[in-house]
Amino acid sequence: MSSVTDFAETNRFFEEQVVGKGDFAGLSRVYTKNARILPPGAPMMTGQEQIQAFWKDAAKALDVAAVKLQTIEAEFLGDTAIEIGAATITQKSGSSMEVKYVVVWKKEGGLWKWHIDIWNPVS
After folding, report:
1. pLDDT digits (tens, 9 = 90+) for 64-104
2. How far apart are CA 65 and CA 26, in angstroms?
3. If you write DSSP's letter for every residue of 25-77 in order, what string do you get?
4. Under a CB-based contact definition with an 8 Å cutoff, are residues 97 and 86 in contact?
5. Which of 66, 84, 93, 101 is 20 to 30 Å apart from 58, CA to CA?
6. Rounded to an integer, what distance in angstroms lies between the CA atom of residue 111 and that of residue 10?
7. CA quadruple 50, 51, 54, 59: dihedral sign
8. Domains of the chain (ranges plus CATH)?
9. What is the pLDDT of residues 40-67, one digit of tens each?
10. What are the backbone dihedrals phi and psi of residue 52, each rounded to the nearest 5 degrees, phi first?
């Protein structure tokens, strides 16, 4: 039976490698090949190339230093999971912002990856 710990490794990779080290090419380890993101105030984007370009530009524009993801609830349905979570985005200035998110996960190549990703700031 699957549990949150099954995809915690992907979330940590996003926090530590992608955001922490600026390894945006590493997003191929986070998102499925046909993933979609639905960022606030922007069009939906599909595929790893568009997603990588989005995150690289967004991290630079927001001057992101770190991201911390926290799973609030998860439901598993075979090789799919739905995660509701909260994130704290810390900027290099020390300021931070809170975000809420939903991720639909899929197993791809034996790994849990983000397939649909939508988030909004908590205001």
Report:
1. 999 999 999 999 999 999 999 999 999 999 999 999 999 99
2. 17
3. GGGGGTEEEEEEEE-TTS--EESHHHHHHHHHHHHHHHTEEEEEEEEEEEEEE
4. no
5. 84
6. 8
7. negative
8. 5-121 (3.10.450.50)
9. 999 999 999 999 999 999 999 999 999 9
10. -60, -45
Q: Using alpha carbons, select from 51, 26, 46 the residue that is nearest to residue 111.
A: 26
**Is the predicted pLDDT of residue 1 greater than 90, yes or no?**
no
Residue 29 to residues 72, 107, 121, Cα–Cα distance (Å): 22, 12, 25
CA 81 from chain center: how many Å?
14
Using the structure block, give the residue that is written with the tokens 């909004």.
120
Report the distance separating Cα 105 and Cα 96, nearest Å. 26
> Does the model's pTM come out above 0.90?
yes
- Alpha-carbon distance of 14 to 79, in angstroms, equals 20
Q: How far apart are CA 93 and CA 32, in angstroms?
A: 32
